[in-house]
Design goal:
single chain; alpha/beta; Rossmann fold; 6-stranded parallel β-sheet; globular
């Protein structure tokens, strides 16, 4: 159902890789809701994905940027304002990568140089995005900036490894910068803690299928899909979430508030 909730708004979307990614599905829905935006991803990710196909579908431009590079981010925001014809109303930070997870390094034997890279890409890059937007005065008042997180920032999950620390950093940055940006420009900053989702990146985590099924049994509404998350992001970019900031918003079908369920009891009783 289309309501044109974002008509006239301008934005930047980080992290669209392919049709399975949350950022990709969000871009499609944002386009349907009347907004204009630019797409961006790191050059290496662009070679792996299909972002140019998405740009064609949404009648927009791709501006390559490594989110860990302040210079790239300055170029991204400057060019986006030129392309879109004004300041930015929304930003989606959908970025996360851990070399330790990708290479199956045990948590008790992680590579610390890779750990720092995980923190830079998956956490610190959010601060760089926010700081760049502030320094360039790129955001309109009452704008909305959202980053995607995961409940492993608060709880321990096997095989999520150093990404858990990166997500904790991400959520802390949202609170600290959320206060600053609200006072400066009334810009709101939030994170969305999403269900395990069958994206290309998520499916690459060891044991993902088993955990996905467990979360499904633990969530009264079931796991939130990538499409569901895209709809929630639309809400957060719209004027209907005008007074929501500095929050980590659980979008997980009830998983985070559930101790145990009948479905899980029945499964374990067999």
């Amino acid at each position: 159902m289309i309501h044109q909730l974002l008509k006239g708004k301008r934005g930047i979307i980080f992290g669209a890789l392919d049709e399975n990614s949350i950022a990709w599905k969000t871009a499609v829905k944002i386009f349907e809701e009347g907004a204009t935006f630019t797409l961006t991803n790191a050059p290496i990710a662009m070679r792996m994905g299909k972002i140019n196909d998405l740009a064609s579908q949404c009648n927009t431009q791709v501006i390559p940027a490594d989110a860990t590079s302040e210079q790239d981010l300055q170029n991204l925001f400057t060019k986006s304002m030129e392309v879109l014809g004004g300041k930015i109303d929304f930003v989606l930070h959908s970025i996360g990568m851990s070399p330790n997870v990708r290479k199956d390094k045990p948590y008790g034997d992680i590579n610390y140089e890779w750990f720092l890279k995980t923190l830079d890409i998956s956490g610190l890059s959010f601060h760089k995005v926010l700081q760049t937007a502030e320094k360039l005065d790129a955001m309109n008042e009452w704008g909305s900036i959202v980053a995607l997180s995961y409940i492993a920032a608060q709880r321990t999950f096997p095989d999520y490894s150093d990404m858990a620390q990166a997500k904790a950093v991400l959520e802390s940055i949202a609170r600290s910068y959320g206060y600053r940006f609200a006072k400066l420009k009334k810009v709101r900053v939030n994170t969305i803690s999403q269900s395990p989702t069958k994206t290309t990146a998520g499916a690459g985590i060891t044991g993902f299928d088993v955990f996905y099924d467990y979360a499904q049994m633990m969530s009264p509404l079931g796991n939130a899909t990538a499409e569901d998350c895209a709809n929630y992001i639309i809400l957060m970019f719209s004027d209907y979430s005008r007074m929501v900031t500095m929050q980590n918003l659980m979008h997980d079908g009830g998983f985070s508030s559930t101790g145990i369920t009948d479905d899980l009891i029945n499964r374990l009783s067999k």
